[in-house]
Amino acid sequence: MINNFRYQKLNGKFDGELIFLEDKIILDKTTILISDIKNIYIHIEDYKGKYLWRKTLKPKLQQGVKNFIKIELLNENTIVKYFLQNEKNEIIKISNILEKYYLNKKIHFLHLIELLGINDYDEIQKIKIKLKN
C-alpha cells in the first residue's frame, strides 16, 4: 500500500522546453518555423501524478513523460522529442495554436479533435464551423 502514492523512477533527464507559438515551435534551443514543417503529430499518454492501475508493489504514480511530438520537415527530416505534461489535458491550453497549425495544414483534423478531447458529434460540427470562419 505504501507504494501506491509514490512516483515511478524517472529514467533520463530533461533537455529543455517545448514551446508552441503560432509561427514556430521551440524545442530546447532549436527553433522550427511552421513554414518548414510538413506534419505535426503529438502523442499524449501521460501526465504527472497519473495513477497506474496494476497489482504490484512498485510505485504507481507516473512522471508525465510518456508524451512525444513528432515533426516531419519539408526537407524529409523527422524530429521526435519526449516531453512532460504536468496535468491532465494540459495540451488544451494551446488549442488556439493547434487550430492555427490545422489551418496551415500541419495537423490533420482528426488528430486535432483527438488532442482537444472532442468526441461528441455536435462538438465536432461546432469546431468545423469555427475553423471555416
Q: Count every helix, treating DSSP H or I runs of 4 or more residues as helices.
A: 3
Number of domain modules: 1
Average of per-residue pLDDT values: 85
Shape: flat
Largest sheet: 3 strands, antiparallel
Task: Provide structural commentary.
By secondary structure, the chain is of the alpha+beta class. The chain has one domain (2-132). 21% of the residues lie in helices and 23% in strands. A hairpin with a 2-residue loop joins strand 2 and strand 3 (30-33).
Descriptors:
alpha+beta, flat, 133 residues, 3-stranded antiparallel β-sheet
Provide a quick synopsis of the model.
21% of the residues lie in helices and 23% in strands. It is an alpha+beta fold.
List the helices and strands and how they pair.
Blueprint: E1 18-20, E2 24-27, E3 30-33, E4 37-43, E5 67-73, E6 78-83, H1 95-103, H2 109-115, H3 121-132
Antiparallel strand pairs: 1-2, 2-3, 4-5, 5-6
